[in-house]
Specification:
It is found in: Cell inner membrane; Cell membrane. Keywords: Amino-acid transport, Cell membrane, Membrane, Transmembrane, Transmembrane helix, Transport. The protein has 316 residues and is α+β, with helices and mostly antiparallel strands. It is built from 10 helices and 9 strands. The chain folds into 2 domains: 50-110, Beta Barrel (OB fold (Dihydrolipoamide Acetyltransferase, E2P)); 113-314, MetI-like (MetI-like fold), CATH 1.10.3720. The strands form 3 sheets. The chain has a 4-stranded antiparallel beta sheet with strand order 5-4-3-7, with no helix packed on it. α3 runs antiparallel to α9. The longest helix is centred in the C-terminal third of the chain and has 32 residues, at 283-314.
Amino acid sequence: MHSKQRAWFWNAVFFAVIIGIGCSVYLAGKRIDYTWRWDRVTPFIINTDPISISAERNGTVEINADQSQITLIPDSGEESFVITEFTETLVSDGDLVFEGDTLAELHGWRIGPIVEGLIVTIEISLYSLLIALALGLLIGLMRISANPAARKLAIVYIEVIRGTPLLVQIFIMYFFIGTVLELERFTSGVVALSVFTAAYVAEIIRAGIQSIPDGQMEAARSLGMSYPKAMIYVILPQAFKRTLPPLAGQFINLIKDSSLVSVISITDLTKAGREVVSGSFAPFEVWFTVALLYLLLTGILSWSIQRLEKRLSASD
């Protein structure tokens, strides 16, 4: 009974702290006399405003009998313009219209720039994660290799990459290497993030492999396995289980670090947030929304790795 009371007490403390943080944010907004306008942010997430379809030339409007097609016949004698995708017609058959006049509207919803930036962030993070995992595994194996050249190359790679800021590496990748190899912005950003993250993944994998007792390799070799087979089927599966928590942390950092690619004009979630702030004049609402979306991505990744870790531990 006493342990239940303590649990209730500490749960109450937890909720009190959360409520206190929320009240602090609210009071801070009141102190700077800020008016919260979340409605300004909504159109940049999901936009339901109708799209206006305008006349491209001066001409005459023709509408077919079932109201499914609008044809604009230009006065200049050029080829007619046919409009088939619309929801509401704003002109009548035979009307004379001028360039720029609205002919119809297309209703529906479409994703806003914030969601478009979120999609770009997901793409960059996913590609970088897969490349970094493969490259990090290769560098990690080189790091523990008996070959002096491979081992020293891996050490130099890890020390150079971990010893320089990611922002500098992105600039070098885009303005120097990207110019020489004619890489696009997106590709340069993915490569820079992959190379940076792979250095940390390599050290995590190296530590995981070296944490496996030497007897495991000796037992596998005594059964007739070659070194590569023993590494693939015996050592790496055990090391992978042990390295899941630090790998999860590194991949979460990768998602957050992806915000730096906005400096080379990739319209990811962060750059989309900056553009929306300039157009909505709602900086706090926009940046809170951007932060929540990053939290959503990292939370999903963390939850997925935790599920994988539990499943692997249950299979032991």
